[in-house]
Amino acid sequence: MLEARGGSVPGEVEEVARLEGVDPSKLARRLAEGRVVILRNARRSGRVRPTGVGEGLRTKVNVNLGTSGTVVDVGMEAEKARIAVRYGADAVMDLSIGGDITGVRRLILREAEPLPVGTVPTYQAWIEGVKRYKAMPPADWFLKVLEWHLRDGVDFATIHAGITRELAEKAVRSRRVEPIVSRGGAMLAAWMLETGEENPYYANWDYVLDLFAEYDAVISLGDALRPGAIADAHDDLQLGELYVNARLLERARERGVQVMVEGPGHVPLNRVALDVRMMKAITRGAPYYVLGPLVTDVAAGYDHIASAIGAAIAAAKGADMICYITPAEHLSLPTPEQVKEGLIAARIAAHAGDIVKLGPRAARWDAEMSIRRARLDWPGMFKLTLDPERARRIHSQFGSPTKACDMCGQYCAFLILGKWLKGRSWPSVDEALDRLGDGHRRC
Amino acid sequence: MLEARGGSVPGEVEEVARLEGVDPSKLARRLAEGRVVILRNARRSGRVRPTGVGEGLRTKVNVNLGTSGTVVDVGMEAEKARIAVRYGADAVMDLSIGGDITGVRRLILREAEPLPVGTVPTYQAWIEGVKRYKAMPPADWFLKVLEWHLRDGVDFATIHAGITRELAEKAVRSRRVEPIVSRGGAMLAAWMLETGEENPYYANWDYVLDLFAEYDAVISLGDALRPGAIADAHDDLQLGELYVNARLLERARERGVQVMVEGPGHVPLNRVALDVRMMKAITRGAPYYVLGPLVTDVAAGYDHIASAIGAAIAAAKGADMICYITPAEHLSLPTPEQVKEGLIAARIAAHAGDIVKLGPRAARWDAEMSIRRARLDWPGMFKLTLDPERARRIHSQFGSPTKACDMCGQYCAFLILGKWLKGRSWPSVDEALDRLGDGHRRC
After folding, report:
1. Looking at CA atoms only, how far is residue A127 from chain B in angstroms?
2. Cβ B283 vs Cβ B246: under 8 Å
3. Which residue of A has its CA nearest to B272?
4. What distance in Å separates the CA atoms of residue B176 and residue B294, rounded to the nearest whole number?
5. A355: nearest CB among B269, B274, B370
6. How large is the ipTM?
7. 3-class SS of residue B393
């Protein structure tokens, strides 16, 4: 960030620009202004694909994984990391809270290569701290654990610095339906309520900035007070924390430390756009990393869908990274299969948003698919799907159709009209994109 | 409709008003104005739940089923009808095109009770007509088959009257990526191109109205020229057909025949709201029945998710009924399990929209769920989910958790903060709804 601010174009910026097909100097300027971050710990240079998050870039998708308080199966978590790589995630967060947390982190850092990896150091600090000190650990313990994570090569880390003691006290006394649903937020709130001290990250923000600067890692400002029910959306607690985060962000910018900001949570559909606009205004265009938003509270078992709805709208309006939600959300740790389902749902949402945000640059994929579809080019279509295996399996679930699929068979619209479409010169991808045009983004 | 126009409140209106918790006289007025339709063939009075579709009512979800050109398994289609009933569909369409079409229709009419059932009579007319006449059947054959359907008790039927011969000729010569993707539309286009005659429904519209009036059934004006690729969205073909449909609709209104209008299809996310506003303006508030809209073309295998995104936005903006899309869309006839998945995705979309459209009337469900969630009341939560079996199965997929779920275990935010939340008086559903308020609908 400091290098970009000096007017040069760092190597990582060149690489991100190449991957995304954007102008490197424009990208460098956005990085300098704090409108873009690049996920990659300096210690992992060469092993991690530098991943840009922010204005003008493709919407990224993050996969959460990690052991739980009750289910510790390291092999399964490693498998989830491999699924994340295989099915096109852009980042992975290891949220382990059970077993050998350090060991799992180091394993995930390897298994998830070349994806950047994030963590929430608070989990380990609180869980191991409470065991070690047989009471709430001292404030500097949180900073020490953070440093371990960065030294291990973590590319970004969620820091719940915005939940001050005052906000934590307000939250537990509030009339919210769900006072605090963030795990890290709850741990810090319990720590502050028990010790009477201020949030250790908030109180030591300059030192936190020093650490992240040292490793050129990205701070993800957590939303400990995100709404966990649509009735709690955009209340004084959520907004109060966002304002604190925005102040902390400005100090990070002054210092040249990269920051993105996390967002909700549960939000009614018609407030998702408002949420993004508000966040972007308050943070002067910082990259927005959203969890969901889930547009209803009732979809347990299918929350990846409730989340895809909100995430697509958020992405179209400017959210920059989507944290996936699996069908197991609100119910259980996910299985690897559920990780895959959640990831693909989030990728659909991200892409639907990118068609709006990036226009033809993103919609080329759709045009290529539809041109093949109109010509019943099945191998061509399968190759372009998010999950070719699944598409092939469904296509032949009642046998192996010859020309059209088993939905219509011989009564496929393209076959019925074959006689009149024969000899038609089919439009090219570029013609289709021309027609979609840039104008559609202004709707 | 004529009864309501006379100033009285028909029995079906009373029943719909009771089911939806709305004012009967207001509902009768909307029916009279053609802003609401009630799905129920007079012949099936007492066997079918009168189902209101339109302004001020809950967004409805339709399940398509029926034999295909290559897969004819009547038992499986009956099972799909039972799944539709069990998992909360509001209507079923039998789109059978293979085997004994009449027999399947009659079976589905029984199996789907008490749900209203719709069909696309064009399929049977074209398929059996071409066989019977060894050529394109005469125009009055299409009307004869329509009458069979209505006499069997079909509550609503898709009539692709808006694709005139001129539009069909334009479509096959167009530069569209996918000229015509509607099966019924393709059949009618082929019929017109082959015979040189005008669309039989369009040419005999008054007679079509007579038939629907006789059975008090609902016309669903089909969108034969819906975009099948986002690059084709809102082109002159789609809009041309919509204008023809709007004119046909006005003639139906004059005659007191109930009509709803069908919509796309594939539409970029930022044009979904525009699509609904445009349709509502052109049709003077007729009920809008949307297929999707799918916000990307690339999601084959997961199109229920691409569709849920568009459908939720459409519903929030005023679409009145959603046609579900299954994960098998673009690939195959769906299995019963895929029917269930598609239905639940569409129900999530409908409900997300209803939170916006209907406010607290819809959001009560969410408040009840979240209040139970904050108290870790698992049986209470399961009962409120869309698919309690699946929620229970996921909840115990790693064993049977005791208090919190296996995502966090002992580190559940509610448990970590238990000490400080103890003795808290939890907000009631009404308090939560008050806070969500009506104001949020104006965002």
Report:
1. 9
2. yes
3. A443
4. 17
5. B269
6. 0.97
7. helix
- To the question of pTM greater than 0.80 for the whole model, the response is yes
d(CA B266, CA A151): 48
Record: contact B345-A183, CB cut-off 8 A: no
Alpha helices in A152-268 (DSSP H): 165-173, 183-195, 200-203, 205-215, 236-255
Cα separation, B419 vs B409, in Å, equals: 17
Contacts for A421-424: CB closer than 8 Å, 24+ residues apart: A421/B172, A421/B179, A424/B172, A424/B179
Closest to B296 (Cβ–Cβ): which among A228, A352, A413?
A: A352
If one counts every other C-beta atom within 10 angstroms of the C-beta of residue B399, the result is 10
Is-contact B353 B319, C-beta < 8 A? yes
| Minimal Cβ distance to B296: which of A176, A328, A366 | A366
* Calpha distance A165→B370 (Å, rounded): 25
Using CA atoms, how far apart are residues A177 and A336, in angstroms rounded to an integer? 31
Find tokens 């699996």 and name the residue: A326
Q: B347 has which bridge partners?
A: none
Q: Which of B169, B170, B298 to mutate to test the interface with A (most CBs of A within 10 A)?
A: B298
Residues of A in contact with B294 (CB under 8 A): none
d(CA B369, CA B12): 32
CB B421, CB A172: distance < 8 Å:
yes
What are the chain A neighbours of B436 within 8 Å (beta carbons)?
230-231, 233, 268
The whole-angstrom distance between A286's CA and the closest CA on chain B is 23
Q: Which two tokens stand for residue A288?
A: 């927005």
Tokens matching residue A96: 């382990």
Q: What is the residue-level pLDDT of chain B in tens, covering all 443 positions?
A: 999 999 899 999 999 999 999 999 999 999 999 999 999 999 999 999 999 999 999 999 999 999 999 999 999 999 999 999 999 999 999 999 999 999 999 999 999 999 999 999 999 999 999 999 999 999 999 999 999 999 999 999 999 999 999 999 999 999 999 999 999 999 999 999 999 999 999 999 999 999 999 999 999 999 999 999 999 999 999 999 999 999 999 999 999 999 999 999 999 999 999 999 999 999 999 999 999 899 999 999 999 999 999 999 999 999 999 999 999 999 999 999 999 999 999 999 999 999 999 999 999 999 999 999 999 999 999 999 999 999 999 999 999 888 999 999 999 999 999 999 998 888 999 999 988 876 666 55
Q: Which two tokens stand for residue A116?
A: 């950047």
Q: How many angstroms away from the CA of A26 is the closest CA of chain B?
A: 26
